[in-house]
Amino acid sequence: MKQQNTLPQKNKPKNYLGSALLFIGIFSTATAAGLLILLLAPFGFSIRYKISALWCHLVLSMSKIFCGLSYEVEGLEHIDKNQAAIVLSNHQSAWETLALRHILPTQIVLLKRSLVWLPVWGWALGTLKSIAIDRKSQTTALRTLLEKGSLYLNEGLWVIVFPEGTRTAPGEIRKFSIGGAMLAQKSGFPVIPVAHNAGNFWPRYSFLKYPGTIKVKIGPVIESKGRKAADINAETEVWIAQALKEM
pTM, whole model, 2 decimals? Predict the structure, then answer.
């Protein structure tokens, strides 16, 4: 699905310098944070999670300092910290995987299993109750999402799902997979739709980052009790598509 929300970007020397400084900052601090999380593995989840959230906040701060990249959030009134929920968000870059950890309540993320095999920070990610799935086996992946997702939701943790499955270029929306909506149907927990235009400033698979303000829009609660997964998924997809048009 095409959306007209892309912005032209110019490659300037300061973009290269800022992006290089950000890369160095992310690599060095991720290694330090990952080692600290691994050292604290025998202790409580909340301690490890706080370290990861602080690191995400640090990366957002470095992005603003080095690259002139900030963000604004609309719809925080839809967040109830006392009610766990399933977040379904569009996926354009690595930025939202960091920012949502800072913006939203304590959460776990659905991700591909190969990520937790990466040395240090991948191993650290594996200690944070992530739902790691093998995309080659859709049946097993769905079973894992439903079982672990329901478990974590009942523990009071939010579950973040990117139903497009992979990062998508600005101006496009891939068809949403049904997994997140099926988790909502099975568990009875509500869905919170999230839309953003991060890919305009932090492009997928790109070294360069660009100055500007990323817009994040949090939608109203989509109830799941007594509803079919297909209906939940369709309502979420329509809301995100419309939110992106308005950005």
Answer: 0.90
